[in-house]
Amino acid sequence: MIGNCEHGQDEDVERGGVHNAFGIGSFALWLTMGVFGCGYLAVTLYANADVTGVWQRVGILAGFLFFAAGGVLILDAPGDPLPVPTTVVIAVLAVAGVAASLYSLPFPLTHVMQTGPPIGASVIVLAFVAVRGRPSAAWIASIAISVIAMGWGHVATQGAMWGLSVTLPGYAIMIMGSLFSLMLRPMARQLYALREANERQAARDAASAAAAEVRDRRLAALDERARPILTRIAERREFSVEEVAVARLIEAQLRDGIRASDLDVPEVRDAAWRARQRGVKVVLLDDGGLSVLAGEEAARTRDRLGAAVAELLADAESGRVTVRIHPPGRNTLASVGVDTDDQVELVEFTNAGAALQAAPADRRLAR
Question: Which domain holds residue 132?
Answer without folding.
Answer: 17-196
